[in-house]
From TrEMBL:
Pfam (any one): p450
Record bears the keyword Cell inner membrane: no
Keyword annotations from UniProtKB, A to Z: Heme, Iron, Metal-binding, Monooxygenase, Oxidoreductase
Protein name (record): Cytochrome P450
Gene3D superfamilies: Cytochrome P450
Classification lineage: Bacteria, Bacillati, Actinomycetota, Actinomycetes, Micromonosporales
SUPFAM superfamilies: Cytochrome P450
InterPro entries registered for this protein in UniProt: Cyt_P450, Cyt_P450_B, Cyt_P450_CS, Cyt_P450_sf
CDD domains reported in the protein's UniProt record: CYP107-like
Recorded family membership: Belongs to the cytochrome P450 family.
Length: 414
């Protein structure tokens, strides 16, 4: 890897760095907008930290999802997660136009603001059922943060309830650095979704017919029908890749968003009390949470198809670039003259890049916002004495990968 910055690579994604990444990234951002870095899997990348350069990188025509220019570097660290059928490839997130445009169009309608609003009563019902089942002390991640978005995306896709408990384990593994466990998790998820697709390609089962009668056609069935019609030229690999992406992006991001929100509120109980007293602040507060500590800490990788400049740094063809969305979001407030390290649920018009920018802006953003508003408001309303059961400095964080969030969060509810 080459460029104008010649310092030793920053070993950024150690577990210690991940735990304290907002502070550590702010220190790096003060030194410059682009830095040489090393991911947990050993791959060297260019890390973009500032808002201005983040927007440029996320829309630059030379930075693409086609990994061909970086094949040698990726192979050296065993990176395989974007391979269709065994990893997390064959979908819109890992595609460039025109394939990206075609694949995104296939599922865009299911996540429109209007369709999302129709899910609010069901999301509230799921939240209430989970809250009803809680004892006096629980791990909030396992009892609430994880099962709520898993239930929502599973119902959208038409996945049977008795199979959903696997999703959390498989996706967490699939998003971790290359290892036997990572490859096994990604492969298990691909095999399961392949089986669900085959179920819809063959004679419909009574269980599938019952679900259709209750809630109409599920999203996975609609994708299968598009494949059968051939009107969108959807290949078998793209069908499977899209299904796997919807499972992963449809719940893992929200699981960790709920976790980062609750850690922030447990650190600042005054902010939780303010939301209880003024529930009308919740929509704006969710934007502030997304700015303050987003669950998708960095983008997936982009590959330089030609030489370019970012923030005074020369990026060469074949170099790998990642954008640190959390750092860029805090930079927005700092550039506006505010205190980016202070959580303020009453902040008006909080701006951020938590859902990305450009053509890969998160399609599920309306759903994530809705789930967060309902889940957090319901939890705060139900349990006014909610407090941590362990010192917050002892809460374990995801040690590697693009996600940020607590792995567990023990709390006392009463």
């Amino acid at each position: 890897m080459s460029g104008d910055v010649t310092s030793t690579p920053v070993l950024t994604f150690t577990p210690e760095f991940k735990t304290h990444s907002p502070r550590r990234l702010a220190e790096l951002r003060a030194l410059g907008p682009v830095h040489r870095a090393q991911l947990a899997n050993g791959l060297q990348v260019w890390m973009v930290l500032s808002e201005q350069e983040a927007r440029r990188a996320l829309t630059h025509s030379a930075l693409r999802k086609d990994a061909s220019p970086a094949e040698e570097a990726l192979a050296a660290v065993g990176f395989t997660t974007n391979r269709p059928g065994v990893g997390l490839g064959g979908n819109m997130l890992e595609s460039d136009p025109p394939a990206h445009t075609r694949l995104r169009r296939l599922v865009a309608g299911a996540f429109s603001p209007e369709r999302t609003r129709q899910l609010a009563p069901r999301i509230q019902q799921i939240a209430d059922e989970l809250l009803d089942a809680m004892g006096d002390e629980v791990d909030l991640v396992e009892a609430y943060n994880a099962p709520l978005p898993i239930a929502v995306i599973s119902e959208l896709l038409g996945v049977p309830e008795h199979d959903r408990h696997h999703f959390r384990e498989w996706t967490a593994a699939a998003l971790s650095p290359p290892s036997d466990a990572q490859r096994a998790g990604a492969l298990s998820l691909n095999r399961y979704m392949s089986d669900q697709i085959q179920l819809r390609l063959t004679e419909p089962s009574p269980d599938l017919e019952r679900r259709r009668a209750e809630r109409g056609d599920d999203l996975l069935s609609a994708l299968v029908e598009a494949r059968l019609r051939g009107d969108e030229a959807l290949s078998d690999e793209e069908l499977l890749g899209t299904a796997v992406l919807l499972v992963v992006a449809g719940h893992e991001t929200t699981v960790n968003l709920l976790g980062t929100i609750m850690v922030s509120l447990l650190r600042r109980p005054d902010q939780a009390d303010l939301l209880r007293a003024r529930p009308e602040l919740m929509p704006g507060a969710v934007e502030e949470f997304l700015r303050f500590d987003p669950s998708v800490e960095q983008t997936t990788m982009r590959y330089a198809a030609e030489d370019l400049d970012l923030g005074g740094t020369r990026i060469r063809r074949g170099d790998v670039v990642v954008v640190m969305l959390g750092s860029a979001s805090r930079d927005i407030v700092q550039r506006d003259g505010g205190d980016s390290d202070v959580l303020d649920v009453a902040r008006e018009g909080a701006r951020h890049l938590a859902f990305g920018y450009g053509i890969h802006h998160c399609l599920g953003a309306p759903l994530a916002r809705l789930e967060a508003r309902i889940a957090i408001a319901s939890l705060l309303r139900r349990f006014p004495e909610l407090r941590p059961a362990v010192p917050l400095d002892e809460v374990p964080w995801i040690p590697a990968g693009i996600m940020r969030g607590p792995r567990s969060l023990p709390v006392r509810l009463r």
